[in-house]
Amino acid sequence: MILNNENGVPAEKENTSEILRELGLITLGSNFRSDIQYISIIGSIEGHTVLPPDNKTTKYEHLIPQLIMVEENPEIKGLLTVLNTVGGDVEAGLALAELISNISKPTVSLVLGGGHSIGIPLAAASDYSFISETATMTLHPVRTSGLMITAEPTFEYLRKTQDRIVDFIVSHSKARKEEVVSRMNCTDNMANDVGTVLFGKEAVKLGIIDEVGGLSQALKKLREMID
Prior knowledge:
The chain is an alpha/beta fold and 227 residues long. The protein has 8 helices and 8 strands, in the order H-E-E-H-E-H-E-H-E-E-H-H-E-H-E-H. A 6-stranded parallel beta sheet has the order 2-1-3-4-5-8, sandwiched between helices.
């Protein structure tokens, strides 16, 4: 028996809408059971500062319990992370990347559209990574906004933050540190910015991503890793 709420909406449908609105997750029906957890990271990664309401965001405090559940739930055998993000909060992005990289179960990431900025460590954090042929990834130096004290300790902190990002990418991919730093500081690839835009095959050639592919390839690889 399906129970309706006071507005006559089936409870299951109402719960699904709430999950989709708050976490960007959706169930595939009460009769469907999968041992894979699917998590999407889209828009801007929102950290300690709330972004304007007209921004499409992924709130890291919503994803942390989902990632913990992947590790804790014995019925979940693997994790597929789907990314289409412009980047965002560095601390939040690195926190999520660290959690993904420490999951003991097989993990696969898929970049669709874009996996820019702090989205690159998030894509590299999985055991195996895919990128669609038309997707792009932007490597660029660490940026900051708002009030900044122009003192040497500030610049040193920014340098250390960038080193954290570079070291994470290098340690979780096949990319060489010298090449990543060089692409980050490139001045002739982007019209009004410093950095490099990598298309699907270029990201694979650089070693940041393992393979060009789509959803079916990502799911097939994850199933093979689980088996």
